[in-house]
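Box 3.1 A note on notation
Throughout this textbook, protein chains are presented in two layers. The first layer is the amino acid sequence; the second is a token string describing backbone geometry. Keep the layers aligned when reading.
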Amino acid sequence: MVYRSILTIALLAVMQQVYSNDTTKYKKIKILPVPAFGYSPETRAYIGAVSLFTIRNYDTVHTRISNAKIEFNYTWNKQVIAEGEWNYFFNKEKWFTKGRVHFSHYPDFYYGIGGNTPDSNKAIFNSRRYIFEASALKQVRYKLFTGISARYINYNNVYYINSNTMYTELSDSRTLGIGYSLLNDSRNNLLTPQYGRYIFADISYNTSVNDYLKIIADWREYKTWNKKQTLAIRLYNELNIGKPSFYDLSHLGGDKFVRGYYYGRYRDNGMGTLQAEYRFPIVWRFGMAAFSGVSTMYSSINKLNQASLKYNYGLGVRFLVDKKDNTNLRVDYAVGSNNNNGFYISFGEAF
């Protein structure tokens, strides 16, 4: 795992000559294409290719830098993953859009519903996954955006590979949802924030085997001193009211939410987490990060006091791949409760 991280960083250091398209003083698109080497609990080792786009189509005094990413990976678990993401500001940030398109053919683990499911519950299943999520938001006040969100999720060809337990909910299903979003975003940089605030709220109506509401609240704060050391704090909560499909239950783990847990190791109607991270430079373009947090899974608000707590903590290395746009490659190792752990490589910060 470590040698793959070193190799990735070395390749990025060599590839500092990025491609750009300059047609005016402010119009600029940088493309950073690199091989992808990495490891995560969900995939084990993987190899592939990723292109990171940083986009300056407008005067950056009034419009923050947009970004996009296209990635393809093949994993040692025989998983195929293709994904594209974007975060785009229009001129003077009058409009903002973000979204994700995802396809994967994916052997995966499922442990059932609840925050205390034992390892013996593990089922190994295969599926094809198609995911589309997008938001279109209009700025109504300074750094305050509001608008609509849409989502489409399709899990098909779901079948068991191996299981000690049979789950009735583990089956093909499609979900279509539409929601209303509110966003207050004053971060100075979307990929590597150093100061500012991010508050996002979304409520969506989803129809699948059953109809249900999904409520998401995401609050992040960033503080930097001496122009180098940054403290980032995130409070996130997700709640499903009704009975969603198994894949749309709130879940713990992964690279973006609670590092140190297998993505989807614990699933329930609700999930809340508080995460904090301290980032600081070391030498040249290298830095480090220390992070920790506490999370919980719950079936309903009324049973929140019965939920058990899940802890995570870890350390990471940062390498500044684009000094001008302050874009980092990060390599993190995290430990969670009950012998869970994870190793992650990605562009930008987890939050």
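The chain has one helix and 20 strands. The first strand starts at residue 19 and ends at 20.
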